[in-house]
Write a structure and sequence with these properties.
Helix content: 25-40%
Distance between the termini: 23 Å
Order of helices and strands: HEHEE
CATH topology: D-Maltodextrin-Binding Protein, domain 2
Largest sheet: 3 strands, antiparallel
Structural class: alpha+beta
Shape: globular
Number of domains: 1
Strand order of the largest sheet: 1-3-2
Length: 73
């Protein structure tokens, strides 16, 4: 997972959809790297992923590189 999120920062990829199961600790560090590089990690409602929840499972999400790609469903 970290490698896929890091690819958004280091390559011309603009968008990475994650439509599979992940848990907070799978994404937390990579989410920080993407944010620091100017990208975004959001759920499918375009809200930033939340951490330190009672349920540790992440919803499906999208990773957008810089400039943040605005996706629509």
């Amino acid at each position: 997972m970290k490698q896929l999120l890091d690819n958004i920062v280091d390559t011309p990829a603009h968008l990475y959809p994650r439509l599979g199961s992940t848990i907070e600790w799978d994404t937390g560090a990579a989410h920080a790297v993407v944010n620091a590089a100017g990208g975004q990690v959001t759920n499918l409602d375009k809200e930033s992923l939340q951490y330190n929840k009672e349920n540790l499972l992440n919803p499906y999400f999208m990773v957008a590189g810089k400039p943040a790609y605005i996706f629509s469903l």
